[in-house]
Design brief:
Layout (H helix, E strand, L loop, with lengths): L1 E10 L5 E7 H8 L5 H10 L5 E5 L5 H7 L4 E5 L3 H9 L1
Parallel strand pairs: 3-4
Antiparallel strand pairs: 1-2
Protein backbone atom coordinates (compact mmCIF):
# COMPACT_ATOMS: atom_id res chain seq x y z
CA UNK A 1 0.00 0.00 0.00
CA UNK A 2 0.83 3.67 -0.22
CA UNK A 3 2.60 5.28 2.73
CA UNK A 4 1.45 8.65 4.08
CA UNK A 5 4.92 10.12 3.65
CA UNK A 6 7.99 8.71 1.93
CA UNK A 7 10.39 6.79 4.17
CA UNK A 8 14.15 6.76 3.96
CA UNK A 9 15.61 3.29 4.34
CA UNK A 10 19.22 2.14 4.34
CA UNK A 11 20.54 -0.92 2.54
CA UNK A 12 24.06 -1.99 3.35
CA UNK A 13 24.87 -5.44 1.98
CA UNK A 14 26.72 -4.08 -1.08
CA UNK A 15 27.71 -0.72 0.37
CA UNK A 16 25.68 1.69 2.45
CA UNK A 17 23.02 3.53 0.46
CA UNK A 18 19.84 5.35 1.46
CA UNK A 19 16.67 5.18 -0.59
CA UNK A 20 13.43 7.12 -0.44
CA UNK A 21 10.42 4.82 -0.79
CA UNK A 22 6.70 5.58 -0.98
CA UNK A 23 4.97 2.17 -0.97
CA UNK A 24 5.39 -1.49 -0.09
CA UNK A 25 6.51 -2.36 -3.63
CA UNK A 26 9.34 0.18 -3.46
CA UNK A 27 10.31 -1.09 0.00
CA UNK A 28 10.58 -4.63 -1.39
CA UNK A 29 12.68 -3.44 -4.33
CA UNK A 30 15.22 -1.96 -1.93
CA UNK A 31 15.28 -3.84 1.38
CA UNK A 32 15.57 -7.29 -0.14
CA UNK A 33 17.29 -5.97 -3.29
CA UNK A 34 14.22 -6.96 -5.30
CA UNK A 35 15.47 -10.56 -5.22
CA UNK A 36 18.38 -9.38 -7.39
CA UNK A 37 21.23 -9.14 -4.90
CA UNK A 38 23.37 -11.83 -6.54
CA UNK A 39 22.82 -10.30 -10.00
CA UNK A 40 23.62 -6.83 -8.70
CA UNK A 41 26.75 -8.06 -6.92
CA UNK A 42 28.01 -9.76 -10.09
CA UNK A 43 27.19 -6.68 -12.17
CA UNK A 44 29.03 -4.36 -9.79
CA UNK A 45 32.05 -6.67 -9.73
CA UNK A 46 32.41 -6.27 -13.51
CA UNK A 47 32.19 -2.46 -13.56
CA UNK A 48 35.19 -0.23 -14.07
CA UNK A 49 35.45 3.48 -13.21
CA UNK A 50 35.33 4.35 -16.94
CA UNK A 51 32.07 2.49 -17.64
CA UNK A 52 28.78 4.18 -18.49
CA UNK A 53 25.74 2.31 -17.15
CA UNK A 54 22.37 2.49 -18.90
CA UNK A 55 19.64 1.40 -16.46
CA UNK A 56 16.46 0.83 -18.46
CA UNK A 57 13.44 0.35 -16.20
CA UNK A 58 15.40 1.75 -13.27
CA UNK A 59 12.54 1.62 -10.75
CA UNK A 60 13.70 3.38 -7.56
CA UNK A 61 17.33 3.22 -8.68
CA UNK A 62 18.79 0.16 -7.00
CA UNK A 63 21.22 -0.61 -9.83
CA UNK A 64 21.66 3.08 -10.71
CA UNK A 65 22.58 4.23 -7.22
CA UNK A 66 24.97 1.34 -6.59
CA UNK A 67 26.56 1.78 -10.03
CA UNK A 68 27.00 5.54 -9.58
CA UNK A 69 29.38 4.86 -6.71
CA UNK A 70 31.66 2.88 -9.07
CA UNK A 71 31.40 4.33 -12.57
CA UNK A 72 31.88 7.54 -14.52
CA UNK A 73 28.22 7.95 -15.50
CA UNK A 74 24.79 6.38 -15.05
CA UNK A 75 21.85 7.06 -17.35
CA UNK A 76 18.58 5.85 -15.84
CA UNK A 77 15.15 5.53 -17.50
CA UNK A 78 11.86 4.79 -15.74
CA UNK A 79 8.44 5.06 -17.45
CA UNK A 80 6.19 5.09 -14.33
CA UNK A 81 5.64 8.73 -13.18
CA UNK A 82 5.35 8.06 -9.42
CA UNK A 83 8.43 5.85 -9.56
CA UNK A 84 10.32 8.50 -11.54
CA UNK A 85 9.88 10.86 -8.60
CA UNK A 86 11.47 8.32 -6.27
CA UNK A 87 14.27 7.59 -8.76
CA UNK A 88 15.10 11.31 -8.89
CA UNK A 89 15.18 11.49 -5.09
CA UNK A 90 17.51 8.54 -4.88
Amino acid sequence: GQLRVPLTITVDRLGEFRFRVQNTTEIGRTLDYGHEMSSLAAFLFLLTPEDVVWDIGASVGLFSVHSAARTAKVVAFEPDPPTIARLKEN
